[in-house]
Amino acid sequence: MAGGEGLKTLAVDIGGSGIKVMVLDEQGNPLTERDRVETPMPATPDAVLQAIVGLAAGKVFDRVSVGFPGVVRQGITETAVNLHPDWIGFDLAKALSDRLAKPVRVANDADIQGLGAVAGVGVEMVITLGTGIGAAMFLNGRLVPNLELGHHPFRKGETYEEQLGRAALDNIGKKRWNNRLERAIDLLERIFNYDVLYLGGGNTKKIDFVLPPNVKIAPNVTGLLGGIALWRD
Ligand code: BGC
Hints:
The chain is of the alpha/beta class. The protein is built from six helices and 15 strands. The protein has helices at 45-56, 92-100, 109-117, 160-164, 166-192, 222-225; strands at 9-14, 18-24, 35-38, 63-68, 72-73, 76-77, 90-91, 104-108, 123-129, 133-139, 142-144, 153-155, 158-159, 196-200, 215-217. Helix 1 runs parallel beside helix 2 (92-100). Bound molecules: beta-D-glucopyranose (BGC). Beta-D-glucopyranose binds at residues 69-71, 79, 81-82, 108-110, 128, 130, 132-134, 148, 150-151, 161.
């Protein structure tokens, strides 16, 4: 055990534009500030691993949780639409564990955001608004992993991610993006009939309409705080 009381977890969030880290105590409370570097371009596994090793340097921790922007199964990254094709089939858990000499667990970034946000009651859904569009679903706190809603058709022959991701926001501006988001929420409510929908990710700060009462904004830090849940067996 590395100093202090209880096991310390280095929570890592790999995003399309930034890589963030924070050390959490055993209860999942932050022990450090959030540190961030720009995601290297091209975002190959090697470049991203190096960035994480750089962020981890000088920090004290016993284990690592990683949120990855793609499908993750048993530590292996299966898709990476906004990073680099070399991630497909990459054993991220093992590669990072080899570099940091600590045990590593990896999950989809929206799943981790959700694990940090949900109350554990009823049907709770999470949508993350960032470079890509992430999604997660929970029933009484139990996660259905790797819900890739972002790549499904939404409107005008385009997916949720094509209509609402960062590139679309840059392209069409805040006003139209907000209109689209309002439509998406309306549609999602009718499909999934969730009790609560949480919106996460950096672009939640661009929202400028009044959200329905069952839609809440999850603070950005939940994308890191949720990492503790990967170590609750
Ligand atoms: C990926 C998801 C991810 C989301 C947010 C999408 O492009 O396919 O797995 O959760 O971006 O990063």
